[in-house]
Amino acid sequence: MDVNVLNNIVYKSHFAFLTIVYAFLLIGCQSTPANKSAILLAQQGQFETAKQTIRSDYSATGKSKLLHYLELGMLNHLQGNYQLSNQLLDQAQQIIEEQYTISISESALALLSGPSYTTYAGKIYHRPLINFYKALNYNALANQASTGRQALLDSALVEMRQLDTYLIGIKDKSGGYDNEQEPSGLDNLTRQINNLTRPLFAPNDLLKDIEYKDDAFAHYISGILFERSGELDAARLQYQRSLQAFENGFAKQYNINGSIITQVKTDLLRVMQAAGGYANEVAKLKKALKSDSTKSAQPILNILQNIGIGPQRKQFNLLLNIDEEAKALVMTPILWGTRQEQQAQMRWFQMLYADTSLFDLIQNYASGDIGDVAMGALTKRIPLGPLWEDAVDLGLVSALEYGSRISVTYLEPVQKQINHSEVWVGNQKVATLNKIYSVSLLTLQDALNNANSEIQIALAREIVKAMTAQKAISATGLDASFSGFAKLATSVVNAVTASADLRQWQSLPAQINYVQLPITKGKHVITLKTHLSSGQVIEQTETIQIVDDITLWHTRTFLNKVRAQTTDSTFFNGKLL
Amino acid sequence: MKCNKTLLKLTPLFVACTLALSGCSSTKVQRVDANQEVALSDKWNAKDSQLVAEAMINDMLSFPWVNDHLQREGSKPAIIIQSVRNKSHQHIAVDTFLNDLKRSILRSGQADFVANKDVRREIREERKDQELNSSLETQNEMGQEYGADYALSGTINSFVDEQGGDRATFYQVDLRLIDMTTNREVWNGQKKIQKLQERSRFGF
């Protein structure tokens, strides 16, 4: 067949062909990741199958080795294999620390392939959670131990000290929750200019105050563990850091209600009274709490309820094209999946990328026509303006003739699945648990916070890939004979490798609830009733032994089906009512 | 344009070299002397444990309480290790450190050691078993245990200062020896170790 005829056929049908290719790729994108399947299996009590799934899909030496250790660490934690869980989480922590050194060779490879070809380094909030779960493991081992309890509790405190060092580093970089005011040195004009030069994609003010800059929850748990070991100064410091972070923004950022802050104040008051020498602070706290009580000698039970499964990172695709008339790059979302997923993708696009701000609309108006302005909510246009000629010379315009696929992460909106949870001792309701930590919001805010850089890197990567392919076609002489076919082929190859990095620690809970109870020493039958938004109630019962003045006890509650596994520190007899 | 073509030709070579270099690393294991320090990180290691134990026991035995005890009692003092709590930010194998302490004391020949509570319990069980099952000639009597004269206890603390890829870690071991009759603190020792770990932000 004549080469020109072949090119002509290819040219006419390229969009249809690319659409089919993208459709196949998108179908592949919607599959459930192995670690999500694993935690769903664990939810049904099938721990060994879940662990086998992790072992076969995430090698202990590959690019996703961190997930191998994180997921197996969590599955063993849920099974009550606390020592093994700690060994695995230790490995995970070491991998994260090794990722401080960025591999240039790996970064170069990622530029020509995609982010999923790099070694997964986890998220900024994963390191504190590793220390938290390791501390819970040591604490549970101490709860079970008849001898050597203090050594195990000391090990839990080692984790808390490491966590504190890590959080100090984060606070140094971010400023923590100490400085909530606007920088005072800026005059009005400078502030306006700053607003104009804000990130290219996200609308003004949307991404404010969602950075992970300290962890009030981690400080609080640290305080409990230090107090349990009788280290009152360290406990006081941790409670104070927790209170400061909760009051200065953490509670607002993660939607934590005021009863948790009241609890932290109560604990701070207790350790200050026990340590002595804080008369002024004690008086202030008593006034704030409207309490005249002196320190209570009654033992305390702290209950941590890990609930549900954290949200899943999903892939969202955009088609990158060149609009030669408007001299602009144009990104159009390709909605795919269920109706709910498509709605979430469109909202994510409109919220973060679409040309909906006044500045964007004016830019579109200036560079295109009124139609572009109207299309603003459905596209993202990047006018090249005076850079257009350079783009032509560099081959960018030619390289994007058949378009290119860009993939970024999105998350579905956080849904309120839990109404509330109650603690019953015997046949009496004694307390209501309150949300103290939201992994769902942490994950969502992290994705939102990284959305700008993610799409900019993805955009740059796809342009580099398209231009490299274009130059290769020119260098080999295919340009003269098989131009259309060669370009289409490289578009397809680039589309195959363009994928967002969806890796994440999937076995984390969606949120953590907490309550503190006064209790007597001895054996108690405790029931947790979790009321779901659907009206269902999940009921779990366990007998626990109180031997210390302060006890920290944890459990995991799955929402679809409670687990059947038995351990000393998790519920074993659950039923869905 | 010529420059661009050259760059284009060199790019695959560069990528191939980079990938080849990154793929060159392989696992290698070699046997090293147990006394040789292998410091892969700033964590507390076997060499730290050994050096601190030796230094502290040398210091402890140089204090006057040993001679005072010999003159007073006419026998070597017997020591028991109560507890050494790890209050550092690293998981430290405290048992290994305690064994290093014991070895240093026993090697000096100036003091004896009494087994700790758990070991004593096991030995008593064994003696009970001997009463039932061993011949009279080989049985060991109950109530002949050696009581400790002094109790050794202490803590391991640490401080960390971190900035970027640099981390300074400061370990401090504090031990004290208490006369079990009078509760007098006859010795108090301290040993400090400082380590600096530097990591580069970029590497191949």
UniProtKB/TrEMBL annotation, chain B:
The record's listing under PROSITE patterns reads: PROKAR_LIPOPROTEIN (PS51257)
Signal sequence annotation: 1-22
Q: Pfam families in the record, alphabetically?
A: LpoB
Superkingdom of origin: Bacteria
Per UniProt, which keywords does this protein have? Signal
Does Signal appear among the keywords? yes
Q: Does the keyword Nuclease apply?
A: no
Please state what the protein is called.
Answer: Penicillin-binding protein activator LpoB
| Lineage, uppermost ranks | Bacteria, Pseudomonadati, Pseudomonadota, Gammaproteobacteria, Alteromonadales
